[in-house]
Design goal:
The chain is mainly alpha-helical and 312 residues long. It has 15 helices and no strands.
Length: 312
């Protein structure tokens, strides 16, 4: 019996052992870059949607020119295949902003961590990618650590049902983005896909920023430096690296690695802005890092076992 196209795509995405290692490295770089973005945003006095518009469009314009000079330009076919990824990432970003504005940061962070459950279940059904029991256990520990970090920063922020629903929407949208990205990259290169997605997110952000009454005036000279760091640091080290990683690692693993993002954000806020971290939060952050390390270290074992079984 032949494999279904989705299961075959999942098997191909796992790639060779070296591809898996490189994919894990790329995913780790991506989530570290995402965790760093919150620090950079604080240096910019811009509304969130206006910031999204400038950040993504700056990346899209520059990288589209680079691809054009390399004779691998952005195509209409690439835009078509990237549509679902662009719409889902735009929706995720917008819903996340709404959630942060309406409800407790702790709620948003914890719900975002739950996307590991959604992605893991869906990737098993669609691609046959299964987590071992030990990986499930370590993933649960990592999610618990993220929850402890978030709750330690909760303070007295207000709860909002609308904000929580927006956080759930962002969670589901983020999971959908992972699957849309893997599917799209069977038809378009990673670099073109990332640029196309950036075009969609940037263009969608413009009217939303205007409707929200945010200032879209031309940024000051010093702000362009931070915008460039966000656009290319998060674009190349963040989205581009993660999009490439999704072709070479199981989706559940890429999703689990993203649990490192709030740890990086909290650690940098402590280092750069002297934000308080309790002993319990530091222990929770260490738990997340240790759990993710154990998951990564164990990834070569299933492949070795299958090879031995085949030889036997």
């Amino acid at each position: 019996m032949s494999e279904t196209p989705l299961v075959a795509a999942g098997a191909a995405a796992a790639g060779s052992r070296s591809d898996l290692s490189l994919g894990i490295a790329a995913g780790t770089v991506a989530v570290t870059a995402w965790g760093s973005s919150g620090i950079i945003v604080r240096f910019l006095d811009m509304g969130a949607l206006a910031l999204m518009a400038y950040r993504y469009l700056l990346y899209a314009v520059v990288m589209a020119l680079v691809l054009g000079m390399r004779r691998t330009p952005v195509t209409w076919a690439g835009m078509r295949h990237s549509l679902l990824g662009g719409l889902s990432l735009g929706a995720v970003t917008g819903l996340f902003i709404v959630a942060v504005q309406l409800t407790a940061i702790a709620n948003v962070t914890i719900m975002a961590a739950l996307h590991v459950v959604v992605v893991s279940a869906a990737s098993r059904l669609l691609f046959g990618e299964r987590m071992r029991r030990r990986d499930v256990g370590f993933a649960v520990l990592a999610m618990g650590g993220v929850a402890m970090v978030a709750l330690g920063s909760a303070g007295s922020e207000n709860w909002s049902l609308g904000g929580d629903l927006a956080a759930v929407g962002a969670l589901l949208g983020w999971a959908f983005y992972f699957f849309a990205t893997r599917r799209a990259q069977t038809r378009v290169s990673t670099q073109e896909y990332t640029v196309c997605v950036a075009i969609y997110v940037g263009v969608l952000s413009l009217p939303l920023a205007a409707l929200a009454g945010q200032d879209l005036s031309w940024p000051a000279g010093g702000e362009w430096m931070w915008l460039a760091v966000l656009a290319f640091g998060m674009g190349i080290l963040g989205h581009n690296a993660m999009n490439w990683s999704l072709q070479h690692v199981p989706l559940w693993l890429a999703s689990t690695l993203s649990l490192l993002t709030p740890v990086v954000a909290s650690a940098l806020a402590w280092l750069v802005f002297d934000e308080a971290l309790s002993v319990w939060q530091m222990l929770a952050m260490a738990l997340v890092v240790a759990s993710l390390t154990m998951i990564v270290r164990g990834q070569s074992r299933p492949r070795t076992a299958r090879v031995r079984a085949a030889k036997g």
